[in-house]
Amino acid sequence: MRLTIEGIGKDFPGVTALDNVSFEILPGETHALMGENGAGKSTLIKIITGLYRPDRGRLLVDGRPVDFHSPRDAIAAGISAVHQERNLIPRFTVGENIMIERPPTRNGVIDFDKVHAEARKFLDMIDPSIDTRTEVRHLSVAQMQIVEIAKALSLEAQVLLLDEPTASITGHEADALFAVVRRLRDEGKAIVFVSHKLEEVMAISDRVTVLRDGRIAAAGEPISRMDRGKIVSAMIGREERVAEMGTRDVDRSKTVMEAKNLATSFGHKSISFQLHKGEILGLYGLVGAGRTELARALIGDGKVVSGELRLNGQVVTIPDVPTAIRRHKLGYISEDRKAEGLILTHPIRSNIAISVWRRIASKLGLIGRAAERRVAEPLVAKLEVKTPSIEQAVGKLSGGNQQKVSIAKWLAAGVEILIIDEPTVGIDIKTKTAIHELIGEITREGVSVLLISSDMPEMITLADRILVMSDFALTGTIENSRRYEPMSREIMGFIHAGAEAGHAAAATAHG
Amino acid sequence: MTLSVSSQSRARPSWLAEQSNLIGLAVIIVLFWVLFTSLAPGFVSSFNLFALSRSLAVDIVIGFSTMVVLATGGMNLAIGSIGVCAVMASGYLMQTIGLPIPVAMALALLLGAFLGWLNGFVIVRSGVNSFIITLASASLFLGGMLILSKAQTFNALPPEIAAFGRMRWGFLSPLLFVALGLGAALIVLFRFTALGREILAAGANPRAAELSGVPVGRAIIIAHTLSGALAASAGLMLVFRLGAAMPSIGQDWLLPSFLAPVLGGTLLAGGFVSVVGTILGALLVTTLRSGLLVMQVGNFWLQLFLGLILLFAVMVDRYRGVYAERRSLGRKNPRQTSGRSA
After folding, report:
1. Chain A closest CA to B292's CA: distance in Å?
2. Which of A168-182, B126-140, B257-271 bottoms out in mean pLDDT, i.e. has the lowest?
3. Across the interface, which of A326, A366, A384 has its CB nearest the CB of B213?
4. Residue A283: pLDDT over 90
5. A354-382 per-position pLDDT tens digit
6. A355 to B195: CB separation less than 8 angstroms, yes or no
7. Burial zone of A38 (CB within 10 Å; 0-12 exposed, 13-18 middle, 19+ buried)
8. Does residue B8 register a pLDDT over 70?
9. Is residue A296, in this structure, part of any structural domain at all?
10. Which residue of A has its CA nearest to B211?
């Protein structure tokens, strides 16, 4: 089945997510779809799988125009996706999940023997080791992906979209997954492989399409004609990312946060690091490595079970988030702005002032809008939040402006240490630069930043030093030379070392 | 449209647009008043207006009791039980112990606040949905009260109680002014105090509020405590009205307690309350009840009407929620491709 994407465009308020995107996906190929965060990959996937409808352009299947109103339509046309957010039902068995769309029945009752027999048939094509009678919640992330692929096969998918399939699985599991991908391709299926990991893309794809700022930067180039440098320059629009920060001169004489052999309730072991005043300390790792959980433990949204945490030299225990903010001037910006960062239905004014309500209240506990405006307005102006009004509901702002409001909230609170988790997820490339500059600026004003990111260029642009985390342990610390190639190789080296160590430990434990 | 903000350019949605829901509700109420007055002139007699003001006072406070918990995105199904516990406690303290009226009333209010606190505490500590916790505590409180009181009505209360219940200011009961006073206090709470803002933030997005330094658990417990105290107030208002403390009070509160805030625009999902809306919602409920009574239509019909109206209000709430989300996320109905105006 040939899927043609023809002149697709999609607008959201204030931002054109996709503009005149055209390329073709052919049967029997693995087609990599690449692009930085905010390049428009996920919008395009949502259009192909029927979640969004394009504002311009059209999709053609084998040359015939199609119009998807829902994911169901896309599935009926033979297009299935394995999304990052799992779409399996944890308490149903593997077999039930695979056959959920059309369970075989006998006399109007579900025939479970047949459910498992049918599911077995599809599972055997890719991984016979998974039992169809296991409940999905007992599977590993990698196994869940296999189940999702089997489910897609059972729906007679001819085009299979894998969205960041290796984001949260280990190297060994990824190798097994790639073997499956190759086999399906050889059987004539079209595989669309979405990833921002260059090594993987070079290893398994036949052709590559790169999106940048919602436009095509490379359309279906055969991988034999591409190399690493060409893909990177297509993604970022120039040969190699130059450090936008200029040279940073951080005085490392003052340590504001120091962890010694921390273990947490999330399962971190012997975490030790130092954060200096005005420094940007990067924390790199794959999704699931335990970075966000470490941040949560540090701000009192989880427990430190052993070891020592020092802030400005003093040993502290932080029982809850309000204490972290008020007493220790320690704040956290979640990667999930919508669910954890902001109150979307409330205005910019109160989203910024929320961190200081207690401080700006009068003796009777009263706070007026004017008091909130006095806090919020200078910050909105300083950070150049683009909005018609400070009373605007935050949900109506673009992602970049929402992120500025998050940062403004912590500047209002007067934090001295700020943990920022994936600051530019879903933010377009121009605003991204503005956010990066903003983070640089607050550190020059004396705020120390612990930066969590899985965006390698961002990490190398921003961080002064980089901690690498793998499987809830720190596997290395690197001084940032701001040269992309050697830095990324070194970082990936620590991640693989961590994964190998994990495997070795598991093997010893079993043996 | 994309300019940095300065204090001069504070364009806000027009006042009228913001109040459209309340204006709609007021129009409906006026229409019912016109209808009832034309069908049964006794509806606007001073006797009926007085009776109406007394029951309106109770309906408003019941509505507030649920509203403060809806603000946190939770609910309180135990308000009837808390109310009757306070009622029976006040009766016992006045009739059996012989405490002065203000002391007995204050203790009864404290009991209501304590029972509400208990709900909030268990909800926050257990992390279980407020629906199920208050469903259980409703039965628990009611059962405890019935065991202790043996379901005996206290009908030998000090005569001042019934006298106050009969008192008129003009043709209105002073109880109505008590209810409106509580409303004014709630407006101040939710608009102008850190505590009230924290309760709303906790309701709108508990995770974001927590990570912004709002003590969410505390806000939820305080909202439930307040809800308990308000339920007790509503119960005590009925003691004044009836001149007795009866164990049957509170059993028919649940429906009107939700109707008033939801009709008035308080979001079921939490994070937004309307005090004036709740008052208007309660006025609609009371108007219907009184009107149907004056027209001598049976109570069965009232139940049917109130059910229909709640359903209607919930539909409107749902529609507003979807609409607000679509506007804030810029997502149109996927089936409408034309008309791209965000």
Report:
1. 39
2. A168-182
3. A326
4. yes
5. 989 988 888 888 888 889 999 999 999 98
6. no
7. buried
8. no
9. yes
10. A321
A112-133 residue pLDDT tens = 999 999 999 888 888 888 899 9
Contact A201, A235 (CB under 8 A): no
* Residue the block writes with tokens 């303290």: B93
Domain count, chain A: 3
Mutate to test the interface with B, among A321, A385, A391, A428 (most CBs of B within 10 A): A321
A377 with B210: Cβ contact below 8 A:
no
B100 token code pair: 């002065």
Q: What is the dihedral of CA B319, B320, B322, B324, to 10 degrees?
A: 160
Q: How far is CA A443 from CA A312, A328, A415, A422, B152, in A?
A: 16, 17, 11, 17, 70
For B5, which of A12, A366, A380 is closest by C-beta distance? A380
If asked whether residues A332 and A444 sit together in one domain, one would say yes
What per-residue confidence (pLDDT) applies to B68? 97
Q: List the single range of A428-442, A466-480, B113-127 with lowest mean pLDDT.
A: A428-442
pLDDT digits (tens, 9 = 90+) for A205-263: 999 999 988 899 889 889 888 887 788 778 766 544 444 556 677 888 899 999 999 99
Q: Give the Cα separation of B113 and B107 in Å (integer).
A: 10
Do A225 and A288 fall into the same domain? no
Structure-token pair, residue A199: 């090594």
Instruction: Say which residue the tokens 């050697």 belong to.
Output: A486
Smallest Cα distance from B192 to chain A, Å = 5
Which of B208, B213, B329 has the CB atom closest to A340's CB atom? B208
Q: Sort out which chain B residues have CB atoms less than 8 A from A390's CB and list them.
A: 5, 10
Kindly state whether A481 is in contact with chain B, defined as any CB-CB distance less than 8 angstroms: no
Question: What mean pLDDT do residues B167-184 have?
Answer: 94
The verdict on A206 and A286 lying in the same domain is no
With beta carbons under 8 A apart, name residues in chain A contacting B198: 357
| Nearest residue in chain B measured CA to CA from A357 | B194
Is the predicted pLDDT of residue B340 greater than 50, yes or no? no
> How many angstroms separate the CA of residue B37 from the nearest CA in chain A?
41
Residue A353 lies in a domain: no
Whether residue A135 is found in the same domain as residue A196: no
Span A455-468, pLDDT tens digits:
788 888 899 999 99
| Last-in-domain residue among A194, A216, A240 | A240
Q: Are residues A319 and A198 in the same domain?
A: no
CATH of the domain at A169: 3.40.50.300
How far does chain B reach from its first CA to its final CA, in angstroms? 12
Q: Are B62 and B86 in contact (CB under 8 A)?
A: no
- The verdict on a CB contact (< 8 Å) between B6 and A377 is yes
Subunit contact A12:B3, Cβ cutoff 8 A: no
Q: So what's the pLDDT on residue A208?
A: 93
Do residues A319 and A421 both lie within one domain?
yes
> Binning pLDDT at 50, 70 and 90, where does residue B322 land?
low
Question: Strand order of the sheet with strand A417-421?
Answer: A330-333, A417-421, A448-453, A280-284, A465-470, A473-479
Examine residue A401 and state whether it is found in any structural domain, yes or no.
no
Q: A24 is in which domain, residue-wise?
A: 1-78+159-240
The single-letter code of the amino acid at A412 is A
pLDDT at position A410 is 92
A278 and A267 share one domain? yes
Residue A430: pLDDT band by 50, 70, 90 thresholds? low
Looking at the structure, tell me whether residues A268 and A124 fall in a common domain. no
Interface list for A 313-342 with B (CB within 8 A): 320-322, 324-326, 332, 334, 339-342
Q: A389, A401, A403, A418: best mutation site toward chain B, by most B Cβ within 10 Å?
A: A389
Tell me whether residue A406 is in a domain.
no
Rounded Cα distance, A49 and A148, in Å: 15
CB B245 within 8 A of CB B90: yes
Q: Which of A112, A135, A157 is the last residue of a domain?
A: A157
